[in-house]
Design goal:
Its EC number is 1.2.1.79. With 548 residues, this protein is α/β, with parallel strands linked by helices. The chain contains 18 helices and 22 strands. The protein has three domains: 247 residues, Aldehyde Dehydrogenase, Chain A, domain 1 (3-Layer(aba) Sandwich), CATH 3.40.605; 194 residues, Aldehyde Dehydrogenase, Chain A, domain 2 (3-Layer(aba) Sandwich), CATH 3.40.309; 40 residues, no CATH class. The structure holds nicotinamide-adenine-dinucleotide.
Length: 548
């Protein structure tokens, strides 16, 4: 749909005539030290990504080859052996210092995130908060999470067992472009604090942000060699990462997740897969409409809707549908859409031409199938190449692609439901199960409904920030949304391997003179028939004593 500059729509902020963004370039002297951090060979080919705000080239990033990835893995392995032997407090201290550096230097990295991703500054700030939360949490909790655990042994008092967690070794992190900091460094930190080294392969579009963060980590005290950054396309460099590591942490689409899972499975290497979503929201009949409309705007359009946990389907009770639709559309149309390295805009640009193409395709296909536009559906070429107005559709039929496929843009569909049960069934009618949101004045009702929703995280009276920001709780998907989690102790455990150590204690003289230990086979001196009878009684006694 063409832009009508006189019609209703989002306020314009970006004036290409006067905005310094139009001429915003990174100085080669600023960028060179960052680029030197990429593991690549002299004379390597380069990738130049385009700034979403303007379509102008950002910087030529050297590209790694599969041989460079193998070299990175060797260096990482050597550094990891020393790192794992260091006291845990040295590892947590790095996270603690990074927390402070992130907050102090936020404006530098906010510029980079916006430049590479195109999101509004207020959305980019979520990434700063996220790294601060994750760093603080693991700095404070890693000791507890990684502590050896004593468990009951086979023969009480005589078999003592400890369950240990060791770092896996080298963790490969493959990340998309939508959260350049959160989905890279946010996963690097737990892997490092667990005693691993990391090979990080950011998306080439957003590599500078990661390279900047690597610089900060070094300043925070991370020893050399532990974080290796490689850049290159997914099928070659991403695949080379999977080939060289002991654990894969992949974030991206379900389609690519299946490829990565198959490759990791072939190597018998575990993989954490954080994949796509088609996240639903339910608006019950007892809500404060304006508060929910405000929450829905954030849940759908933060990060220009390019957020794995953002909402793409809203089921509204018939009783409040019209009122909610009107309030939601009004607030959405009032969003300030624009470019700028400041906090004036509410919503930024899509990140690439490919992303814009998917959004346009999904919206046009839905309209072609009879959907109604309540807001947006306008490509704003006046603001930059890939700006698209936050869009609300109604009457989207089941045959439309948008009804089931992830759009990953600022587009949401509204549907009517007439009961809680119908809402739960509709929310669960998807192959995905990443995030869901339920709004009701009755929080007990919300919590009870949440348990019936097939999703890794459910937010009651919030879109996604409450679960994502509660970093002590695991965050992950079910079904086509992935396997494994990040955050919390379970997230830390993903990059560890378990080892059980059982020590069998001896009782001299008790079992005769042959050995110092109580054997777990036939006891010395007992006949072949007597030993099973004795052990049978022992098993009965253990149950009677309620031993676990
Ligand atoms: P994508 O799957 O196309 O690519 C993800 C990354 O994997 C890219 O950097 C890509 O270059 C790389 N890649 C491609 N082929 C590869 C291969 N064979 N081996 C290794 N790496 C390969 O996804 P995208 O479009 O970049 O990202 C958006 C998707 O990510 C959406 O589906 C979104 O929901 C999902 N996502 C999920 C989460 C989560 O936590 N669950 C978070 C953010 C994004």
């Amino acid at each position: 749909m063409a832009h009508d500059p006189h019609g209703p729509g989002s306020a314009e902020l970006h004036d290409p005539e006067t905005d310094p963004l139009a001429t915003y370039v990174l100085e080669p002297d600023d960028v060179r030290p960052l680029l030197a951090r990429v593991v690549a060979s002299p004379g390597a080919a380069t990738h130049t990504s385009l700034a979403p705000f303007t379509g102008a080239p950002i910087a030529a990033i050297p590209l790694s080859t599969p041989d460079d990835v193998a070299r990175a893995a060797r260096a990482a392995r050597a550094a990891q052996r020393l790192w794992a032997a260091r006291p845990l407090r040295e590892r947590t201290a790095v996270l603690s210092r990074l927390h402070d550096l992130m907050l102090e230097r936020q404006s530098d990295v906010l510029d980079l995130i916006q430049l590479e991703n195109g999101k509004a500054r207020v959305s980019a700030f979520e990434e700063i908060c996220d790294i601060a939360l994750v760093a603080r949490h693991y700095a404070a909790r890693a000791r507890r999470y990684l502590a050896p655990r004593r468990v009951g042994g086979l023969v009480p008092a005589l078999t003592s067992v400890q369950v240990l967690r060791h770092p896996v070794g080298v963790v490969g992190i493959i990340a998309p472009w939508n959260f350049p900091l959160t989905l890279t460094i946010g996963d690097v930190l737990p892997a490092l604090v667990a005693g691993n080294a990391v090979i990080l392969r950011p998306d080439p579009q957003t590599a500078l942000t990661c390279l900047w963060a690597a610089e900060q980590l070094e300043e925070a005290g991370l020893p050399e060699g532990l974080l290796q950054i490689v850049v290159g396309d997914g099928p070659t460099v991403g695949a080379a990462v999977v080939e060289n590591v002991d654990h894969v942490s992949f974030t991206g689409s379900t389609r690519t997740g299946r490829v990565v899972a198959a490759q990791a499975g072939g190597r018998l290497v575990p993989a954490t897969l954080e994949l796509g979503g088609k996240n639903p929201m339910y608006v019950a009949d007892d809500v404060d409409i304006e508060a929910v409309a405000e929450g829905a705007v954030r849940a759908c359009f933060v990060g220009t809707g390019q957020v794995c946990v953002s909402i793409e389907r809203i089921y509204v009770r018939t009783e409040v549908y019209d009122e909610f639709a009107a309030a939601f559309a009004r607030r959405t149309r009032a969003l300030r859409l624009g470019a700028g390295l400041d906090y004036r805009a509410d919503v930024g640009s899509l990140t690439s031409a490919a992303q814009l193409a998917t959004v346009v395709e999904h919206v046009e296909d839905a309209i072609g199938h009879g959907a109604t536009v309540l807001a947006g559906a306008v490509h704003r070429t006046d603001l930059g190449p890939w700006f698209y107005e936050p869009t609300i559709l109604a009457d989207v039929p089941a045959e439309a692609r948008l009804a089931r496929e992830e759009t990953f843009g600022p587009v949401v569909a509204l549907y009517r439901v007439s009961s809680d049960d119908e809402a739960v069934a509709a929310m669960n009618d998807s192959e995905f199960g990443l995030n869901a949101s339920i709004w009701t004045a009755d929080t007990a009702r919300g919590a009870a409904l949440a348990r019936r929703v097939h999703a890794g995280s459910v937010n009651v009276n919030e879109g996604y920030v409450a679960t994502w920001g509660s970093v002590a709780a695991p965050q992950g998907g079910v079904g086509a949304s992935g396997i494994g989690v990040r955050h919390g102790r379970e997230g830390l455990w993903e990059t560890t391997r378990l080892q059980s150590v059982a020590v069998q204690h001896g009782v001299h003289g008790l079992v005769g003179g042959r050995g110092p230990r109580i054997g777990l086979g036939r006891l010395y001196g007992l006949g072949a028939e007597t030993w099973p009878a004795v052990f049978t009684e022992l098993l009965r006694a253990m149950k009677a004593a309620r031993l676990p």
